[in-house]
Each structure stands twice: as C-alpha cells, then as structure tokens.
Amino acid sequence: MKRLFFALWPDTDTRERIYAISRMLPRKCGRLVPINNLHTTLVFLGDIDAHVCQDVQDTTSEIRSPAFSLQLDTIGKWPGAKVIWLAPSSIPEGLASLVTGLNKVASNCGVVIENRPYSSHITLARKAHGPAPYPVFTPFVWKVQGFSLVQSTTLPEGGRYEVIRNWSCGQ
Ligand code: 2AM
User: Fold this and answer.
1) Is the CB–ligand 1 distance for residue 9 below 6 Å?
2) Whose CA is nearest to atom 6 of ligand 1?
3) Ligand 1 atom nearest to CA at 122
4) CA distance 68 to 90
5) pLDDT of 10-51, one tens digit each?
6) Residue 78 pLDDT more than 80?
7) Of 23, 107, 117, 140, which sits with the fewest C-beta atoms within 10 Å of its C-beta?
8) Sequence-distant (≥ 6) Cβ neighbours of residue 67 within 8 angstroms
9) Is the CB of 41 under 6 A from ligand 1?
10) Whose CA is closest to atom 1 on ligand 1?
C-alpha cells in the first residue's frame, strides 16, 4: 500500500519564494515545513494498493486541464488548528475544475475520499500556538503548469514526500 495524494508541486523558484515567507513567520508560528515539502494538496487519496494506483494514473491521464495561475496573497490559521498556511484568496476556474476532475478519478477507481469542502492552501508551519501577527509580504503569482501524484511516508522526523508521476496542464 502507498499513501498517496494529488498536489500542485511548486517549481524551484516558486518554492523559494514561498519559503522566504515561511522564514518571516515569528517563532511561535511553530515548526516550518521544510522547503522541499511545500505543496498544495488537490485531493488526498489515502492508502492505495498497487493495482488501484495504476488505475488512478491511467484514468488521470485522460484529464485535460488548462494552465492557471494562483495569486498567493493570504496567510492564515484555521480556528482550533495548529497550522499556518499561505493561500490564494480566490480559486481560479482551472483549479476548481482540476479538483473536480481528480475527485471523479478517485470515485471512478473506487477510492473513497473525505467529503469536505476543498480549501486550497500551502501549509507553511505546523504545531503553531495562538494567533500571531503575520508578516506583511508581497503577494506573488504561481504559474501552475502541471500537477503531481505524490507518495507520503511518515517518519519520526516528519513526513517525507516523493513525486511519483507528473501531468502537464494546458496541453
Ligand atoms: P495539510 O498540509 O493541511 O496537513 C499530505 O499529508 C498532504 O495531504 C498534506 O498537504 C495534508 O494537508 C493533506 N491532507 C488532506 N487530507 C488529509 C488527511 N486526511 N490525512 C493526511 N493528510 C491530508
């Protein structure tokens, strides 16, 4: 079994820009997500066996998604959660339809996923305590060219993520 999720996986430049914002967070904002782990989850699939994993990949290859851009302009923390995130304040149509398409892939392949509203975000830090004054930063645009299937492994030191397949948007 592999623990899998679909994600937008930032290019190096975008990853560095996001991490520069993480580094501006005050210390009480918790433990920073390492730069190479930064991502936006699209659909979390959970534990998937090899046969279903192949089916998911084949079905995903039938998706046609336009390229789109995310204006990363908001830092926040959900009430009661200990996670600080960076997010776009508006969801482009291309992202919404990609998430819908990937949810359909999951259900067509018999993968049961959590039925909760999609909230696009990049987790910057975990184990954050209390409200914090968040840093003022210059919003920037992430030009999304594709999406990825990612394997998550939980290690004592935290999660390790490995991209196992990429798909392009806009082709
Ligand atoms: P998070 O960053 O808000 O914790 C890998 O775990 C990725 O999948 C993370 O980005 C995580 O979001 C997201 N995710 C969504 N639903 C999840 C779940 N039920 N269990 C673990 N991770 C989940």
Assistant:
1) no
2) 152
3) 2
4) 12
5) 999 999 999 999 999 988 888 999 999 999 999 999 999 999
6) yes
7) 117
8) 94, 143, 144, 145, 169, 170
9) yes
10) 123
CA–CA distance, 88 with 45 (Å, rounded to integer): 23
Kindly report the CATH number assigned to the domain that includes residue 72. 3.90.1140.10
- pLDDT for 119 equals 94
What is the tally of structural domains in the chain? 1
Strand stretches in 89-157, DSSP E: 122-126, 140-144, 146-155
What is the tens place of the pLDDT at every residue in 100-138? Answer: 999 999 999 999 998 888 999 999 999 998 777 788 999
Ligand 1 neighbourhood includes 44 CB (under 6 angstroms): yes
136 C-alpha vs ligand 1 centroid, how far in Å? Answer: 26
Structural domain that includes position 15:
2-168
**Taking residues 79-103, what's their average pLDDT?**
95
